[in-house]
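Renewal narrative, Specific Aim 1. Our central claim is that a sequence can be written position by position from structural information alone. The example that follows is taken directly from our test logs and has not been curated for this report. It begins with the structure tokens describing the chain, in the order in which they were read.
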């Protein structure tokens, strides 16, 4: 036996005995596995993205799936597809771009909200939220944030909706209050219907009344065809008309009233 073996003592006494038995028991207790120590939340917030611009949709996915309690379960480019996919995926929150709403999609939005699915609308930059916010709230929407919101604000909004809480941007809320408390600015006596539109929307509506097509209007105003369609959709929704003919009649009626 070497000198080192003598210092170590008999191998059978390497583990403590007697009063040290508790220490031995602790020493032998298996440690929890890494998976057990990093177990994900038992329930995930299941999110469906409704966004027709791929780059922006990918960005939303990255932001939401970076959260340990969230999962993007489906992606669609249009609201009808989102409504169809929501039930099959057990979706809790649908995040949808404001530009995909309005007109024929409002009944679909209403059905989606009635099914118990929360909806977060991301407002287009530079749009006036008053009448649009009224429409989506009447449809049952409880979430309305700017499309350029910070990532954490978006995450907080989704979490709030998953807990049946509202997620309304303060600026949008202020615009809504002004819209509801100043009806004279919207529909007071002597006020033209076109006064409800922005300057650009009025230009588009007036060119429609002159019989120009969307392509001709785009060339006239030096704007893209998609922008013209967006302005036209917003104008018709705000004025409560469904066809270009109805819009043209309303524009001509306003002009004859002024004359």
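The sequence written for that structure reads:
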């Amino acid at each position: 036996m070497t000198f080192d073996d003598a210092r170590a003592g008999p191998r059978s006494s390497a583990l403590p005995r007697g009063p040290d038995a508790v220490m031995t028991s602790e020493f032998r207790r298996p440690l929890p596995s890494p998976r057990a120590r990093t177990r994900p939340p038992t329930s995930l917030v299941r999110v469906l993205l409704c966004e027709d611009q791929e780059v922006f949709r990918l960005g939303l996915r990255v932001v939401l799936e970076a959260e340990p309690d969230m999962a993007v379960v489906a992606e669609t480019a249009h609201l009808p597809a989102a409504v169809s996919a929501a039930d099959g995926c057990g979706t809790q929150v649908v995040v949808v771009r404001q530009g995909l709403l309005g007109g024929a999609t409002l009944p679909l939005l209403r059905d989606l909200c009635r099914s118990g699915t929360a909806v977060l609308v991301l407002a287009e930059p530079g749009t006036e939220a008053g009448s649009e916010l009224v429409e989506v709230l009447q449809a049952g929407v409880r979430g309305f944030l700017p499309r350029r919101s910070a990532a954490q604000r978006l995450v907080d909004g989704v979490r709030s909706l998953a807990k049946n809480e509202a997620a309304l941007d303060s600026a949008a809320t202020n615009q809504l209050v002004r819209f509801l408390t100043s009806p004279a600015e919207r529909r007071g006596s002597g006020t033209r219907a076109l006064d409800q539109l922005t300057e650009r929307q009025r230009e588009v509506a007036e060119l429609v009344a002159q019989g120009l097509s969307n392509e001709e209007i785009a060339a006239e105003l030096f704007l893209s065809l998609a922008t013209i369609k967006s302005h036209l959709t917003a104008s018709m929704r705000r004025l409560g008309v469904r066809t270009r003919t109805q819009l043209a009649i309303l524009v001509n009626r306003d002009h004859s009233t002024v004359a």
